[in-house]
Amino acid sequence: MIFPSLLALGLATANAALAQKAGTHEQVGDTLVSAMMMFLGNEGKIYILDKVEGNPTQINGHSAYAAVWDIATRTAIPMDVQTNPFCAAGMHLPNGSFATFGGNGAISPGGNLGSVLNPGGSSASYDATYQDYDGTAAIRIITPCEGDPTSSPGCTWYDSPNGLKMQKHRWYPGCEPLADGSVVLIGGFTNGGYINRNTPNDDPETSHGAAEPTYEFFPSKGNAQVLNFMTKTSGLNAYAHTYLMPSGKMLVQANYSTILWDYTNNIETALPDMPNQIVRVYPASGATAMLPLTPANNYTPTVLFCGGIYMSDQDWGNYSFPFANTFDIPASADCQRLTPEPTDGQPVAYEQDDDLPVGRTMGQFIALPDGKLLVVNGGANGTAGYATNTGVTLSYSQMPYGMSLAAAPVGQPALYDPTAPKGSRWSTAGFDTSTIPRLYHSSAILLPDASVFIAGSNPNVDYNASTYFPTTYKAEIFYPSYFAASTRPVPTGIPSTLSYGGNAFDVTVPASSYSGSAN
């Protein structure tokens, strides 16, 4: 099911939002858990997942690791999940459900291993204090509904330690929906770490069992298969960037490498490397987005990569920690465009785009309904992740920002206009600057009224309210420039549900319901 407000994203009238000043942030309460991951479930609810940690809010006798936010009342209530969703992948399913895949092993307070160890002793299957189970192979599914999200049948998370599982254990896997409604899951760590390699990197395929170089499908289409690209990009291939193309092939980007992947036959076609060896995947965590598909570009996909960071291969370190003080290294401001399947006969090539107004790691693009892209969150220095030391700063007591491997939060959003001439695509005019740091495990999402909900940040191994960059529950809404309009569009004719195929329909937006050009 697709809800009508999702079809009209950015078009619905919202009286409360109209009262806000365009270009400003508004603090809107607490999320109860830190928003590591979130998605819009229906007209009125945002579902939020955190990693397992000692959040003060309790549910069923343990700390809460999930919540649901009510957009109208601006309040959250906790939800129960059983398996640890720490850095899982997430994806919408064709029926309107949302699924998350993988995560981390069971942990106890302080981020230590849970009380019941898995065979081998390097991870845990359960912890008696936090009451969490191993989530590395877990599949969690929720179908948004109007009932009580804590108890109504069908409205709670389906998450069972003995239920749906992937074939492989995956932490930080790539995830992409396919044309047939299935999802492909790519790579990941098997247990955890900073980057996905040992030093020396003498086994780039599996890192002696710590790296997962395979892909599989949900629902399953057979045994997991090795993707050679994961070996080529060993170390820096967590949360690989993936985009399905019109040909049915998939753009995959990680480390400095780029391919078009025929996932049906597991055939890789090499594309040019990322210029300047700037890393965009985790933990460099650049912002990426597909530009709007329009008649003007013949609906040809172009992907934008912005930010991330350049570090030497040595500085990236290994599973344990970076070998450099990442928080002292400036994030990249570089932006590149790539059209993987050009229709004009030109060779595939990265195209230098306008730089970000300021370098940014952990930025996130939000596609706005006016065809522009908003980037929010992140820091001007460093990378995602957390650690008690680096290869340079050997003691936690000397770490300048607690466990954070990033610094200099970037609180001012920036707006990108893909149709503007080069040299004038970025703007921050009229935008205020949030005072809330949004670093590792921060997130943002577009709301039905076309404002932007921003939450999260927790570069810490466990709940910590007193460190330099504390666990953050405060949520904000940012109001883009179009909130300066005296009237807002009011669509009519939106069907209550959508399915694949079926009859065409018209959505009408009366000219009297908006100001300015219809285009």
Automatic annotation (TrEMBL):
This protein's record includes keyword Signal: yes
Domain Glyoxal oxidase N-terminal stretches: 209-482
Keyword terms: Signal
Position of the signal peptide: 1-19
SUPFAM superfamilies: Galactose oxidase, central domain
Name of the protein described by the UniProt record: Glyoxal oxidase N-terminal domain-containing protein
Record organism: Bondarzewia mesenterica
Organismal lineage: Eukaryota, Fungi, Dikarya, Basidiomycota, Agaricomycotina
